[in-house]
Amino acid sequence: MSTGNIQEYNGLWVFVEQRDGTPAQVSLELLGKGHDLAEKLGVDVTAILIGHNVSEIAEELIFYGADRVIIADDPIIKDYRTETHTEIIAEQVFKEKPDILLIGATCLGRDLAPRVSARLNTGCTADCTELDIDKEMRLVVATKPFFGRDLMADIICPFHRPQMVTVRPGVMELKNQDRKRQGELIYIDVNLKEENIKVKVLETVRSVSDSISLEEADKVIAAGMGVGNKEGFEMVKELAKLLGAQVGTTSLPVDEGWISEDKKIGQTGKTIRPKLYIGCGVSGAIQHSAGMINSELIIAINTNPKADIFNYADYGIIGDINEIVPALIKGLRAIKG
Amino acid sequence: MPETSDIGWDPETGSLIREGVEGILNPNDKNALEAALQIREQHGGVITALSMGPPQAEDALKEALSMGVDKAILLNDRIFAGSDTLSTSYALSLAIKKIQNVDLILCGKESWDAMTAHVGPQVSELLNLPQLTYATEITIHNNSVTIKQKLEDGFKILASSFPALITVEKEINQPRIPSMESIMNAYRDKEVQVWTNEDLGADKTHFGLKGSPTQSRKVYIKKVHKGKVAILEGKPDEIAKNLIQLLKQKGLC
């Protein structure tokens, strides 16, 4: 059953994920991308912000590209819960009929987006890597990688509204703020009753990490299967330390248990865009490259001259990392004293 | 889910051709089955394995039966072919209604192929059930269930009443490997029930390519080629020296 009169649907919305009054970076990335897409259609960008004591960030959302911010602020929605957030978003969508709804594909966003799509009876394309507008059809064209291979699909949602899309953190570029931008703040009433909400949050525990996350790092050294074993990572970690870089990896070393899953870069892991990426023994198949192709400078070290990574690296070294990495460590130590 | 080694796509519809591809159990679903089996061991109950797919998905359900589930149902109908996640979730939710009196629905977090992680939350919505996603632990109490929910940088403990839907992470357990005997038994003595659209009594317009809100317009192979790579040559020490020089010039070390 398609959406009734789809011509009534207008405007682009971005769901803004926030925690303790700080917006998730992916939401800011989507406001920037959303702004570009909305310009092609000649429509406004609306941010939808849900939480408690969150109004302070509304202005920042405007600086990042929103023309309007819908704010739901209430103690009952202090913690994210699927039911409460779905209820609020669905109510606003029914009322205002946006054409497009973008959501960051974080743990929270991946819990929320499919639920909202089922509530609204519309299509949602998950984990897109590119977004564009077909101007003639006035449709969102969402590109997503498929099947753990170099297969891509362009997905559209022609007869249902809003057209929903999720995008992983780091996939879209974070645009600079424009502090001169102005916009409208719209406060909405929240009429939810705790006794009607089935899920309770009993405890929230955040692990404190003192290292910079991969997504934020300026320099990343990725170690692939070429490092050979768990010990091979120690050598790579030492090089990373000397360069002030973070260590990342590909799927297989994680499956082998050599390194933790949060270090995985690629389709099933993080998406990064550092200034410097060095791949050590990384073959660079699409499963990995999808998460690092936007790095500014890509250096590859691999024994196999036919490895995929040499197709997109800026500099390549055809050699054994067990010889090259120690030489780099020695050289860096020499200049650092 | 199909194995990914040999797939094709239909250039007319842009949809993946899944026929003739061997059906295997999605790795993440094995964790869901294992979680269900462990719950049954402690609390009793009847486990039904439910899947939607082409006839060869029966093999995946035979695998579930050999792991020890009580019943297996395959939703198979030509009109289901080409369904997107919402349309698939619709069929699954109707089947769950037909099964009746379900206390707990367990799903793998995501399929190994499309990895949308959509079906769990969409089925929950269509059945108006609480959804508890990314579980690494499940605890069953008298009138409620709690899970430990894995997040990017920590976890939450969530509680809900029954019935509820839970999606599980792979670290929740180590799925059992069925013995040769139980595999033989599953193939010889146990049956996979096949339900068609008629059994579900659904509105046909919800299914297939036409009934799915999302449509693939184009499926293509993308090779990434950035340009010509500059190869650094020489002995390891020389290469290292040149590379460090290069990084210095670019202000990267």
Summarize the structure.
The complex is a heterodimer of chains A (337) and B (253). Chain A has 337 residues and is an alpha/beta fold. In chain A, 27% of the residues lie in helices and 26% in strands.
Give your account of this protein's structure:
The complex is a heterodimer of chains A (337) and B (253). Chain A is of the alpha/beta class. Chain A folds into two domains: 6-196, HUPs (Rossmann fold, 3-Layer(aba) Sandwich); 219-336, 3-Layer(aba) Sandwich (Rossmann fold). Helix content of chain A is 27%, strand content 26%. Chain A is built from eight helices and 18 strands. Chain B has 253 residues and is an alpha/beta fold. Chain B is 33% helix and 25% strand. In chain B, helix 2 (57-67) packs across helix 5 and helix 3 (85-99) crosses helix 4. The radius of gyration of chain B is 23 Å and the shape is globular. Chain B starts with 7 loop residues before the first strand and ends with a helix. At the A-B interface, helix 3, helix 4, strand 7, strand 9 and strand 10 of A face helix 3, helix 4, strand 6, strand 7 and strand 8 of B. Strand 13 (200-206) of chain A pairs antiparallel with strand 8 of chain B, so a sheet runs across the interface.
